[in-house]
Design a protein that fits this description.
The complex is a heterodimer. Chain A is mostly helical. Chain A has 13 helices and 2 strands; from the N terminus they run H-E-E-H-H-H-H-H-H-H-H-H-H-H-H. Chain A has a single domain, classed as MetI-like (MetI-like fold, Orthogonal Bundle). Chain A has a two-stranded antiparallel ribbon. Chain B is about 75% helix and about 0% strand. Chain B is built from 15 helices and no strands. In chain B, helix 8 packs antiparallel against helix 9. The chains are: A mainly alpha, B mainly alpha.
């Protein structure tokens, strides 16, 4: 009797969450899925037309979509690799008992606190033809003409990647730093006494012990990378000439500039599927490790 | 000893090099209109009035107000709603509650960008488009999964006996929840609060799509809107960047450890 009453209360307690989730997450996901089979400009609901798989055909043969998929993958690969390397090295540095490590930790963590919009605004100005980077390059006589970091289709995407690395190194660093605190000191000390040098301590003891942290951090970077929007939108808006277009910016453009909701929804579904795969892997990894 | 001092100097130097972009923006924010594009770093004549002009031009009073309203209301409601659900998933299980919990967990990975079209339609249909409600409702929905996950984990660590003792003493479930569970869960609630606060404070794409009137803009959209016009004076943009960054940085310095825990919460649990 009591448990029946409790389960009723339990349901009531979780009802608001269920309602919000249903209306603003579940239904939108299903709606997106439905829209992939439709042609619609996004204004009058009565004008939704069923077109079968036409949108899928259009998207998967669309050069810009393939380009933005490739760009997103490049973004994910570069940010994941370098964020982890820089974050790990940063964690090793701030894990020492030397004056200044606290300052360094806060310095590297500062950009994590800021919105990617702020980071994008800063870096766009810095790398502009009149920005400090080009001033220094010209002062040193490396090139006469300013380098158009965001205007050159060959390097625009990589410029955005560098800004992203600057922003999020602190995040990975703190995850690794937390991991380092979990390694018992005596193991490290013992191997030092046994004559292991710093390099061996890192490669033979610290990295293997941290492998669950490495996996989680990389997965988080991958998941974050595939949905990147803000910093690309503010720095290049996908340009020049689509050279830095990513999935989310292309979706945004198709939906709200060209009003092709069906086309945009296919891109959305691609993002959802990638996110779900990554999340399933993440749940599997975490439930195994902890 | 010498080695340690040398290392310490290197570490300070590294920190300063890392902060160069920030220092440069700060120098830019103090330049005269004439020096804005020509100088490299700090100039002799400093123009602190840039901050005042930037505050007025960006309409920062409005932007901060809007961001605060949207963020505080959405974070508070997310906490209340998610804590109730987390408690029911932890201690008041009902038929199907586990399945519902796992479905909600999947929501952690749905990026707002992926459902922006239906959200736009739904908000229009509900008459909430171009109002702060549209942001508050979406932020609640997208904050719930991680909040439920973290709080449920914490509630599970509270001994069952405590709850049963309260029940025997005649306390109602809602009474137990507010008088026993919530006071015991302050650390977890603090973590979730900071995580949600930062997420909603910096959120961009939903605000970009769901708001039309400039008077409703939150900080990121307002900033993007202003700097999107490339003729906007650099020294004012720089001052705006500093103004927009300062509050969060100050709060961070006051409660560093909580912040780190809150911001990395998405990584540790789950």
């Amino acid at each position: 009797m009591l448990s029946k009453k409790l389960s009723k209360i339990g349901f009531i307690f979780s009802l608001p969450t269920i309602v919000f989730f249903l209306f603003f997450v579940s239904i939108p996901v299903l709606f997106t899925l439905a829209l992939t089979f439709a042609s619609w400009k996004g204004f009058d609901i009565n004008e939704i037309k069923f077109v079968g798989l036409a949108n899928y055909y259009k998207v998967f043969t669309d050069k810009v979509f393939l380009k933005s998929f490739l760009n997103t993958s490049i973004f994910v690969i570069f940010t994941t690799i370098f964020l982890n390397i820089f974050g790990f090295i940063g964690a090793l540095i701030i894990d020492q008992k030397i004056p200044g490590t606290r300052f360094l930790k806060n310095a590297i963590f500062l950009p994590v606190l800021l919105s990617p919009i702020i980071i994008g605004v800063m870096w766009s100005r810095m790398l502009d033809a009149f920005g400090i980077v080009n001033k220094i390059i010209q002062l040193l006589g490396i090139t006469k003409m300013p380098i158009l970091f965001l205007g050159n289709p060959k390097i625009a995407l990589y410029t955005v990647i560098v800004a992203t690395l600057w922003q999020f190194t602190g995040y990975d660093m703190l995850l690794y730093y937390a991991g380092l605190q979990g390694i018992p000191n005596d193991i490290v000390e013992a191997s030092r006494i046994d004559g292991a040098n710093e390099f061996r301590v890192v490669t033979k003891i610290i990295i293997p012990t941290l492998s669950p942290v490495i996996t989680i951090t990389m997965l988080l970077n991958i998941i974050g990378g595939f949905k990147v929007f803000d910093i690309v939108y503010i720095m290049t808006a996908g340009g020049p000439n689509r050279s830095s277009e990513v999935l989310a910016t292309y979706l945004f453009q198709q939906a709200f500039r060209f009003n092709d909701m069906g086309f945009a929804s296919v891109i959305a579904v691609v993002i959802i599927i990638i996110s779900l795969i990554a999340s399933v892997i993440r749940i599997k990894v975490t439930s195994r490790e902890y | 000893m010498v080695k340690k001092i040398f290392k310490s100097i290197l570490i300070y130097l590294l920190g300063i090099i890392f902060l160069l972009p920030v220092i440069w923006v700060f120098s830019l924010s103090l330049r005269s209109k004439k020096d804005a594009l020509s100088a490299i770093f700090f100039t002799r004549d400093l123009h602190f009035e840039n901050y005042y002009i930037a505050w007025k031009t960006f309409n920062f009073s409005k932007l901060f107000m809007n961001s605060l309203i949207v963020t505080i209301i959405s974070v508070f409601l997310t906490l209340v709603i998610s804590a109730l659900a987390a408690y029911s998933f932890a201690r008041l299980n009902y038929k199907g509650s586990n399945i519902i919990f796992y479905i909600i967990l999947l929501g952690i990975m749905i990026p707002p960008a992926a459902v922006i079209i239906p959200l736009f339609i739904i908000m229009k249909t509900l008459g909430l488009y171009n109002s702060h409600y549209s942001l508050i409702f979406s932020y609640i929905a997208f904050g719930l999964p991680i909040a439920v996950l973290i709080l449920r984990g914490f509630f599970l660590s509270i001994p069952k006996e405590l709850i049963e003792a309260a029940r025997i003493d005649g306390s109602s479930e809602i009474g137990t929840f507010f008088r026993i569970i919530i006071p015991l869960s302050k650390p977890a609630i603090a973590t979730v609060t900071i995580f949600l606060f930062m997420q909603n404070w910096n959120e961009f794409i939903l605000a970009l799509v769901l708001l039309k009137d400039k008077v409703l803009y939150t900080l990121p959209v307002g900033l993007a809107n202003f700097v999107g016009q490339w003729d906007s004076p650099w020294q004012l943009v720089a001052a705006g960047v500093i103004i927009a960054s300062l509050p969060i940085f100050i709060v961070y310095l006051l409660i560093q450890d909580l912040f780190v825990k809150g911001l990395t919460a998405g990584a540790v649990k789950g």
